[in-house]
């Protein structure tokens, strides 16, 4: 069967590919955020690790420098506690005696020995109030140097038993011509015996070498003394007055760290005091240097995020294209099926839930196709049966009208006969004159009687034929009832198929629910699959809606079938009543035939006895009265037959209308089914 496809208006929808692409971009954005957070965390971790490393190195150098300072202080204690030094500066200092010279020589020898054995000792100096100052410098020191130093800030803060560490001894340097480039530090302590000061200068190279142990590539290390001297091998720092000023002002604590601007860059400052010497060991490192490895992690993370984002986007796009292609294919196939083309193939290239869905839809379409084929065949049979019934009833109506016409003719003849008999009675006075005329009338009546008998026989034959047609119509009606009942039973089988479809829809919905649960478990990474689950759930809901529409169509078919069965039962009842009326009509015609035969005998007798009638007027009158009575009875009988035939004709027309209505319903059902195309 061919049909014209009805164009349906497409609803503008958002493609699933875009929604899945957006869903896949969410984890990509989260990965970017993760990269940024990872960089921040790693940067903090690296800075912390670097700080710990520098702190450990600074602590190690601090420990070594503390040990060096302790050695120097121990040497100072050894020198001050030496007998020759104590004796010389408590008794012989400033004298020119041999004993004084020998003691001075012993002190010098002792000091030179310490200088030669201790590579960290650059020089020594002893200033005395009474003169006799001894120094490793070549220049002679005047006694006034002692007075100037004792009045200075450093000299006034020194107490016996406790020395100080200084970066410079300017008064002594100026007096003895000592260069500050030769020594880094100087430990100054008062003598225990006599009034004097001991200076032990620490070698510059030794100190700088230790400071460089904390100097990584890009770092600047230094040692800051109590009097503000900064010891470092960095010329940049030496020329950076602003940084030096900041160091002098902000390194008063024993240890710590802070952030400063060095060479226009943000840098980290670590500092630690060496014991209680007042010496501060410092290290400056640029943050860019610390974060160099973090920047490499940043670049690597950025590259990985870009690669992962591109890969996730590509995978999401491919998945969305595959799903969108399958959904578009299903949608177009279902549109063709909705348009009536049940030959549409529904397939899926994916061996997953899409294939199961395609198989279920194909089974549903096959089931509906078989049902519609059966309904179409039944519609054709109903159409043919109703057309045959209508033709039969139409023939029956024609026959009934013929019978009705014949009966009306009989009624008219009987009426004429009654009139003639009455005229005969009125003209009894002229009986003698009209005897010949009466004889001729009797012959005419005899002929009419013969015609009447023939009409009665013809009517009986027609009624018998009509009765047989009514029987056949009754049989056809019973067959029609059986066919309609079979259709009603067939529509009940649709319930099983609908239950199967509902089970499929429920299974699909359960599948969508399971997919939604799994997507929820997967978290943000499963949001893309959650959209797919929603689309599957919508398809299950549409299947359920289609099942409900099929139920409504089947319910309408069942209602139409029940109405048709009731109409056919009424038709059958009308046919039964018509058959009974036909039988009564046949019986009436039999009576009419009997009466007509009797009348013919009477007419024959009247004709043969016309002479006797002339002679016996009373006998003739009596016979005429009997004829009048008989004619009246025949007229009454014909009127009853006419009424019965008219009633049956009305019933037959009603049956014809019902048959035509049934035929129209069948043709309407046939037109409804013609838009569907099935596989042969």
What's the short story on this structure?
InterPro entries: HAMP_dom, MCPsignal_dom. 73% of the residues lie in helices and 9% in strands. The protein is α+β, with helices and mostly antiparallel strands and 680 residues long.
Explain what the structure shows.
Residues 392-642 form the Methyl-accepting transducer domain. This protein is an alpha+beta fold. It is built from 16 helices and 10 strands. It has helices spanning 16-80, 83-92, 98-117, 144-151, 153-157, 170-176, 204-212, 235-239, 241-250, 287-290, 292-338, 353-426, 435-522, 527-608, 610-615, 617-673; strands at residues 121-128, 134-135, 164-166, 183-190, 196-203, 219-224, 230-231, 255-262, 265-273, 280-286. Helix 14 runs antiparallel to helix 16. The longest helix is centred in the last third of the chain and has 88 residues, at 435-522. The radius of gyration is 69 Å and the shape is rod-shaped. The termini are close together.
The spatial strand order of the largest sheet comes to: 2-1-5-4-3
CATH topology-level name of the largest domain: Helix Hairpins
Instruction: Label the overall shape.
Output: rod-shaped
Strand content: 5-15%
- N-end to C-end Cα span: 10 Å
Report the biggest beta sheet as strand number plus sense, adding barrel if it closes.
Answer: 5 strands, antiparallel
Q: Give the CATH level 1 class of the largest domain.
A: Mainly Alpha
Q: From the alpha-carbon coordinates, what is the Rg to the nearest angstrom? A: 69 Å
Our count of helices gives 16
Helix content: over 70%
Q: pLDDT under 50 segments (min length 5)?
A: 1-11
Number of separate strands = 10
CATH architecture title of the largest domain: Orthogonal Bundle
Average predicted confidence as pLDDT: 76
Structural class: alpha+beta
Count of domains = 2
Strand and helix order: HHHEEHHEHEEHEEHHEEEHHHHHHH
């Amino acid at each position: 069967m061919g049909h014209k496809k009805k164009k349906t208006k497409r609803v503008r929808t958002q493609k699933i590919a875009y929604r899945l692409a957006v869903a896949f971009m969410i984890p990509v954005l989260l990965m970017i955020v993760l990269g940024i957070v990872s960089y921040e965390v790693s940067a903090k971790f690296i800075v912390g690790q670097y700080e710990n490393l520098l702190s450990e190195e600074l602590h190690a150098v601090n420990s070594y420098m503390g040990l060096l300072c302790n050695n120097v202080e121990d040497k100072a204690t050894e020198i001050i506690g030496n007998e020759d030094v104590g004796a010389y500066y408590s008794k012989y200092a400033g004298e020119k005696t041999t004993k004084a010279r020998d003691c001075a020589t012993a002190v010098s020898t002792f000091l030179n020995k310490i200088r030669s054995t201790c590579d960290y000792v650059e020089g020594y100096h002893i200033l005395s109030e009474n003169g006799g100052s001894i120094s490793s410098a070549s220049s002679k020191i005047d006694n006034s140097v002692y007075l100037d130093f004792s009045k200075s800030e450093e000299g006034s803060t020194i107490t016996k038993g406790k020395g100080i560490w200084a970066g410079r001894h300017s008064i002594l340097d100026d007096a003895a011509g000592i260069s500050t480039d030769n020594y880094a530090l100087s430990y100054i302590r008062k003598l225990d015996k006599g009034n004097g000061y001991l200076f032990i200068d620490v070698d510059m190279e030794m100190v700088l070498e230790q400071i460089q142990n904390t100097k990584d590539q890009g770092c600047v290390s230094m040692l800051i003394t109590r009097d503000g001297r900064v010891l470092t091998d960095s010329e940049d720092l030496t020329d950076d007055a602003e940084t030096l000023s900041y160091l002098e002002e902000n390194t008063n604590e024993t240890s710590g760290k802070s952030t400063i601007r060095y060479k226009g860059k943000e840098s980290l400052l670590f500092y630690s005091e060496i014991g209680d010497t007042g010496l501060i060991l410092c290290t400056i490192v640029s943050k860019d240097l610390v974060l160099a490895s973090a920047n490499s992690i940043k670049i690597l993370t950025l590259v990985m995020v870009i690669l992962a984002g591109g890969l996730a986007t590509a995978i999401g796009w491919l998945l969305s294209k595959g799903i969108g292609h399958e959904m578009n294919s299903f949608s177009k196939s279902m549109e063709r099926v909705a348009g009536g083309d049940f030959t549409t193939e529904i397939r899926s290239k994916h061996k997953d839930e899409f294939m199961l869905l395609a198989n279920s839809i194909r089974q549903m379409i096959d089931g509906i196709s078989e049902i519609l084929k059966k309904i179409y065949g039944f519609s054709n049979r109903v159409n043919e049966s109703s057309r045959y019934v209508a033709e039969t009833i139409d023939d029956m109506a024609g026959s009934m009208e013929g019978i009705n016409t014949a009966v009306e003719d009989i009624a008219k003849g009987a009426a004429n006969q009654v009139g003639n008999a009455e005229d005969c009675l009125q003209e009894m006075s002229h009986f003698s004159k009209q005897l010949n005329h009466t004889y001729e009338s009797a012959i005419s009546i005899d002929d009419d009687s013969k015609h009447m008998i023939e009409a009665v026989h013809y009517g009986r034959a027609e009624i018998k034929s009509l009765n047989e047609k009514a029987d056949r119509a009754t049989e056809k009606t019973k067959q029609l009832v059986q066919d309609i009942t079979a259709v009603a039973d067939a529509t009940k089988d649709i319930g099983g198929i609908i239950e199967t479809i509902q089970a499929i829809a429920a299974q699909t919905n359960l599948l969508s629910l399971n997919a939604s649960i799994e997507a929820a478990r997967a978290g943000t990474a499963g949001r893309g699959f959650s959209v797919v689950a929603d689309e599957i759930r919508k398809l299950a809901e549409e299947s359920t809606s289609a099942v409900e529409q099929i139920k409504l169509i089947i319910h309408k078919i069942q209602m139409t079938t029940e109405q048709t069965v009731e109409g056919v039962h009424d038709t059958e009842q009308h046919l039964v009543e018509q058959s009974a009326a036909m039988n009564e009509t046949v019986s009436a015609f039999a009576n009419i035939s009997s009466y007509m035969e009797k009348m013919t005998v009477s007419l024959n007798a009247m004709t043969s006895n016309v002479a006797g009638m002339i002679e016996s007027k009373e006998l003739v009158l009596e016979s005429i009265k009997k004829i009048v009575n008989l004619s009246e009875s025949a007229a009454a009988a014909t009127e009853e037959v006419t009424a019965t035939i008219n009633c049956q004709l009305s019933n037959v027309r009603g049956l014809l209308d019902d048959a035509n209505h049934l035929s129209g319903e069948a043709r309407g059902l046939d037109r409804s089914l013609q838009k569907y195309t099935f596989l042969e």
